[in-house]
Amino acid sequence: MRQRLSDPMQDFFELRDRLYRLLDESFQPQQTEEAPSFSPPVDILATDDEVVILVEVPGMSRDDVTVEVEEDVVTIRGERAAEDDGQYYVRERPVGRFRRSFSLAYHLDPESVTARLEDGLLEVTVKRRQPARQISVTGDED
Fold it and tell me: Which CATH number fits domain 8-127: 3.30.2420.10, 2.60.40.790, 1.10.10.10, 2.40.10.10?
């Protein structure tokens, strides 16, 4: 009998997805919606003016993804439908629902959140709050 060799990278990615789901579910209030079935890869990039959250969602349209801001948390939800065109011999592309939530730091403005989906990459941008500035006082001279 031949022993089946596993792909260590595939095992790693599956473990990573399970950890992401566990962490996402651990820090969220109990909700009645169905638990996420996969977790898309995310990069978070900070510049001087903004923070950009990049989420890989290939094959998904704008109607498949929602971005919400509640208090200081950005939540990205989506669903990739299964294609039932025949019998699969290999199926590595995840299907189902996902949910990712990110807390905004105090220096980010939750009112400035924008989202753009292009070529399978969702880009969520959050502007930094304007730094405090001194206002000159005008009025009667003494």
Answer: 2.60.40.790
Rounded CA gap, 104 and 125, in Å?
A: 11
Show pLDDT as tens, one digit a residue, over the chain (142 residues).
555 566 777 777 778 777 777 776 555 555 545 567 889 999 999 998 999 999 999 989 999 999 999 988 899 999 988 877 788 888 888 888 999 999 888 888 888 999 999 999 999 999 988 877 888 888 887 5
Q: Which contacts (CB < 8 Å, 24+ apart) does range 107-111 have?
A: 108/51, 108/72, 110/69, 110/71, 110/72, 110/74
What pTM value is reported for the model? 0.66
* Domains of the chain by residue range: 8-127
- Which pair of tokens denotes residue 132? 């405090």
Distances (CA, A) of 84 to 37, 91, 131: 18, 12, 53
